[in-house]
């Protein structure tokens, strides 16, 4: 089974009292184990809506009209918030767009990673084991000085380090697949590349699947196995990087 299989998915936004407008139209998308897939498209093409739909993070003004979402063959379409929170914590690592709004400013990084570890295995392990698992996640996210970062607050970290802290939180749940929503747009280009290369390494070392959402074809190019191009709510191109490039 694919890690993620989206089939014929259509998502609407409420745009009036009895009016709904589709933002995602009949989309098919799959991510296989160890695969790096990039979803590219201009702003407004429906990328965020699609990924939020897959994660159970749609706003109340949106609805899944038809289609299905399955993780490793388990159909999660229509699951409630609580069950989807478990899917996000234990199966999908979600790296949100902006580290400044996604990290808790008044909690030390270590505490935030530990919470993610404990959400993954709420009953297993001692406090010391949770701490060690959190440090391991920080190191796996490329924070070599994990002990130090553990005791720091978000505002004490650079943009790149905050992004890595978010990766650590995502990894703490031992995900099979990582979804990243423009994870690098707030960072300068050099840091962007380092972070993306780190995602590539995670895929190679842990066999994690990666779904990267970006409006920037450039960042997706060298690193993806497959690219999907979204326009006006639909996938208009799909395939290996080279072939998609020839067609666009
Ligand atoms: P991005 O292109 O970076 O995803 P947007 O500017 O499209 O950012 O969206 C920012 C926020 O505004 C999102 O929460 C989105 O759901 C909301 N939004 C975008 N378009 C509309 C719209 N037409 N009506 C209401 N909310 C919208
Ligand atoms: P992208 O992530 O590619 O920038 P979005 O998924 O944010 O695209 O938006 C897709 C379409 O849905 C756009 O036309 C946008 O204006 C619309 N949209 C996004 N959020 C909302 C919302 N909360 N309410 C109404 N329309 C929205």
Structure commentary:
Residues 4-248 form the ABC transporter domain. Belongs to the ABC transporter superfamily. It is found in: Cell membrane. This is Peptide/nickel transport system ATP-binding protein. With 248 residues, the chain is α/β, with parallel strands linked by helices. It is built from ten helices and ten strands. The strands form two sheets. It has a six-stranded mixed β-sheet with strand order 6-7-8-3-9-10, with helices on both faces. It is globular. Bound molecules: adenosine-5'-diphosphate (2 copies). Residues 13, 23, 41, 43-49, 59, 61 line the site of one adenosine-5'-diphosphate.
Chart the SSEs and their pairings.
Layout: E1 4-14, E2 20-31, E3 36-40, H1 47-55, E4 62-71, E5 74-75, H2 81-90, E6 92-95, H3 99-102, H4 109-120, H5 127-140, H6 146-150, H7 159-172, E7 177-181, H8 189-206, E8 209-214, H9 217-221, E9 226-231, E10 234-239, H10 241-247
Parallel strand pairs: 3-8, 3-9, 6-7, 7-8
Antiparallel strand pairs: 1-2, 1-4, 4-5, 9-10
Helix pairs in contact: 4-5, 4-7, 5-7
The structure holds adenosine-5'-diphosphate (ADP) (2 copies).
């Amino acid at each position: 089974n694919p890690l993620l299989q989206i089939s014929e998915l259509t998502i609407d936004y409420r745009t009036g009292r009895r009016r709904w407008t589709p933002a995602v139209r009949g989309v098919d998308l799959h991510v296989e184990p160890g695969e790096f897939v990039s979803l590219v498209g201009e702003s407004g093409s429906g990328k965020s809506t699609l990924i939020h739909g897959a994660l159970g993070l749609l706003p109340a003004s949106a609805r899944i009209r038809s289609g299905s979402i399955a993780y490793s063959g388990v159909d999660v379409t229509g699951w409630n918030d609580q069950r989807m929170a478990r899917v996000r914590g234990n199966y999908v690592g979600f790296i949100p767009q902006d580290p400044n709004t996604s990290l808790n400013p008044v909690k030390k990084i270590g505490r935030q990673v530990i919470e993610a570890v404990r959400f993954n295995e709420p009953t297993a392990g001692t406090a010391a084991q949770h701490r060690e698992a959190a440090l391991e996640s920080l190191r796996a996210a490329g924070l070599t000085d994990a002990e130090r970062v553990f005791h720091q607050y978000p505002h004490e970290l650079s943009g790149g380090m905050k992004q890595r802290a978010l990766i650590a939180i995502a990894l703490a749940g031992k995900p099979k697949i990582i979804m990243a929503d423009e994870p690098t747009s707030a960072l300068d280009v050099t840091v962007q590349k380092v972070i993306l290369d780190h995602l590539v390494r995670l895929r190679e070392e842990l066999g994690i699947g990666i779904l990267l959402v970006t409006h920037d074809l450039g960042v997706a190019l060298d690193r993806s196995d497959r690219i999907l191009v979204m326009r006006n709510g639909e996938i208009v191109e799909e395939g290996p990087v080279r072939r998609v490039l020839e067609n666009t």
